[in-house]
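Structure tokens please, single chain.
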Amino acid sequence: HPEIMTVNSVFGYNEVVPRSLDLARDTTPLPGWMNGISSYSLWWIIIHSDWYRYHGDCEYLAEQRPYLVALLKQVFEKIGPDGRERLDGTRFLDWPSSDDAASTAAGLQSLTILALDAGAGLCEALGDTALAAECRTRAALMRSCPVGDGGEAKQGRSLMVLAGLADPETTDRDYISKGGSNGFSTFYGYYMLRAMAAAGNYEGALERIREYWGAMFDLGATTFWEDFDMTWLAGAARIDEPVPAGMRDLHRECGAYCYKGFRHSLCHGWASGPTAWLTEYVLGVGVVEPGCRRLRIDPHLGDLEWVEGTFPTPYGVVKIRHEKAADGTPRCENRTCKTQRITNLISYNYATYRIE
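Here you go.
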């Protein structure tokens, strides 16, 4: 999902995404879970929701209907009468949080809700209002079910915020921002940043990007890694130079679970979450209608003085720049090339106009 959100934010449509989604579907006959992991099938639903939102391809979405409907009904069967998820298969968020059973349980409860929310929107787009209503009914039941203590891991806590199961400000203060970048992970770091944004802590999120993802750059990386932990930094050598005697060889010596040694990839798309996060929350681009027919621009510069970027749409590229005014509020300027005809309706927090 972070990879697909980065593709959406930087490149726009790329056939690799639908072909990969279809491969995962076609190699996972139901009632199986993708890769044997229930959360991966939930991500498949969420990814399709975001792919449709950004690209608006109704024909491609219609091709998913038989599998999507059957998968949603399978998810329904894994929700108890009390609203608690009872997912089978491998119960998993990511490896760094896998030893925290309470966090995994809270995260799976939250992720199931997010998948049902996404499924409801997809079913409505497909004209199946009855199944959409059932998705929403099940999600409401799950939101009424206590999730326990939620564990200590930031992964589960972040999903709780995004699913509406936890107060954003309290969770950010007591869990996500506590200890700085300790406990961050490459995959779920994207959702930690989103949870911090939900709490209004944009400056804190920018600092996490600088500290956690920036640490990889400081070590000589040109791509983000499959796994990274702040505890690896002590005595670590750069990865783009021969390792001096007495210093830690990160690629050879670090990593845990399935990331040990050279099994650990130093170029992994699920670590690209800051790219999508910066586009959505700092540049402030939100897709309001499927296929980018309408965008909302709501920037949050945090401690930045200015931000400039582009956003791909099916109609062309939108170019945007924000500068911080003397009173600290963003001053927005649309910089879309006038030779391109883009019919999106762009709404700023102080004005709405059509780009022609």
